[in-house]
Recover the amino acids of this structure.
């Protein structure tokens, strides 16, 4: 009997060892795979969050671009109104005054400057801070001579303030979002120069 007990004990120990080795091998194989799965899952979540941030910035940039185009068009039209008013004071044609100032004549062309502003308003559509009808009414008064140059300039400055009233908060929001993004610092700095 003592031999049988020893054989039974050896078999049981051998089964436990075989089970232990199998369990250990499975654990050693599954542990790295599980850890990699957790890391990949975390990276995927981070990637999706960054992609969502980037998509939001990408949706905002075209609107900022359109507002900048409108702002520039308003400035160009304001310049044309000012140059035209000064040209009349000095008995010159607006094109002559522009040349004297070193500007291209297109810079004072009513058709050119007005078309650029109208196009920028049309592109923005209902999001435009400038009412196209109010702008047309202002132009009609300017063309009829019913508005002096100072008042015309003031009206265009008010249009510019309306554009800034919409654009500045949008710029700041976009700038905050890009600063929070990885590698967004350079884009944020570039936005600062546009403001």
């Amino acid at each position: 009997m003592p031999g049988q007990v020893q054989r039974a004990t050896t078999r049981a120990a051998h089964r436990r060892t075989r089970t232990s080795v199998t369990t250990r091998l499975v654990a050693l194989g599954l542990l790295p795979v599980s850890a990699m799965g957790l890391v990949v899952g975390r990276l995927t979540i981070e990637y999706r969050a960054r992609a969502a941030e980037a998509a939001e910035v990408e949706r905002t940039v075209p609107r900022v671009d359109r507002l900048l185009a409108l702002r520039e068009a308003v400035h160009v039209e304001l310049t044309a109104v000012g140059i035209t008013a000064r040209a009349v004071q000095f008995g010159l044609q607006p094109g002559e005054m522009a040349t004297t100032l070193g500007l291209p004549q297109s810079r004072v062309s009513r058709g050119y400057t007005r078309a650029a502003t109208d196009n920028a308003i049309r592109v923005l559509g209902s999001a435009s801070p400038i009412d196209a009808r109010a702008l047309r009414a202002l132009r009609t008064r300017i063309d009829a001579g019913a508005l002096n140059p100072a008042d015309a300039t003031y009206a265009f400055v008010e249009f510019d303030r309306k554009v800034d009233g919409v654009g500045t908060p949008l710029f700041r929001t976009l700038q905050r979002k890009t600063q929070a993004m990885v590698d967004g610092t350079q884009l944020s700095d570039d936005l600062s120069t546009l403001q």
Remarks:
- The chain has a mean pLDDT of 78.
- The radius of gyration is 36 Å.
